[in-house]
Amino acid sequence: MPHSAPLPRFCGHVVEEPQLDLIRGLVARYPGLSRTELAATACELLGWLRANGKPKTVECRGFLDTLEEQQRIVLPARRQKRAKRVAVAIASEDRPAPVPIQGPLAALGSLQLQAITSAEQRRQWRALVEQHHYLGHRIPFGAHLRYLAVSAQGVVGCLQYSSPAWRLQGRDRWIGWSDAQRQERLQHVLCNSRFLILPWVQVPNLASHLLARGARQVVADWPAQYGVTPWLLETLVDSRFRGACYRAANWMALGETTGRGRDDRRHRRHGAAPKSVWLYPLHRHSRRWLRGEG
Asked: Domains of the chain: which residue ranges?
């Protein structure tokens, strides 16, 4: 790695050489640790913690991979992943066909957003999203909360909120913040990274209703889980969809992305898969707060 190469960043902060030396020392001193264990240890030693005091292990795990790509460190070999358990897939021969859920919104009866807390709920959420969402199930980047939308007639949908994009042109232009302001306050932005209405559920206005319910729910749940109050929601809608339910739920459309994605660090996929950017302010002063104006 040439000495003139710019220093890497972790969650927007420049990582100086003494911090890199500490990470190199960990790798050399503890060759038996997995990459995830190294990431957790580095977070504890460097103070890379969330507002609730928990380490940013997921983000740091990706950061270590980046350092290895840049030839700044040499990590232990990746450990073989365990095979997915059969329980994660819902396509089983003995599972009865879903009963269609149709009619007006009021006919659903009591409608709740259940936060995913148990192993059984996690299996169900992953299975539904993997089979019925066009992006499938992926481990989210950083902090996240997941919900099952449950009616009196059964599960009708799934939602996920997770860490936002570091840079998002339409969002950043709308807020009008500087790099320093974004670095300091990005944690107050959440991404609605998965939203699914199950295909056998045909209920007018359900999607926009759940988006509105989800916004209220995550404002209450996120501070309890992570110690940070969200001020703004963002999402990306694939070009094959019109985003009608987001518009009906009063989200704002702000143009398209470049199509690169979070992991395209070398700009190899510019324009490959553009998506429309949508925002939902959670307070009338959201934009001012994100700029640090009160």
From this structure: 9-69, 108-290
Q: Which tens digit of pLDDT belongs to each residue from 78-92?
A: 876 554 443 444 443
Q: What is the mean pLDDT of the chain?
A: 86
Q: Looking at domain 108-290, what is its CATH homologous superfamily? A: Gcn5-related N-acetyltransferase (GNAT) (3.40.630.30)
Strand partners, 275: 238
pTM greater than 0.85? no
Residue 147 class from Cβ within 10 Å (0-12 exposed, 13-18 middle, 19+ buried)? Answer: buried
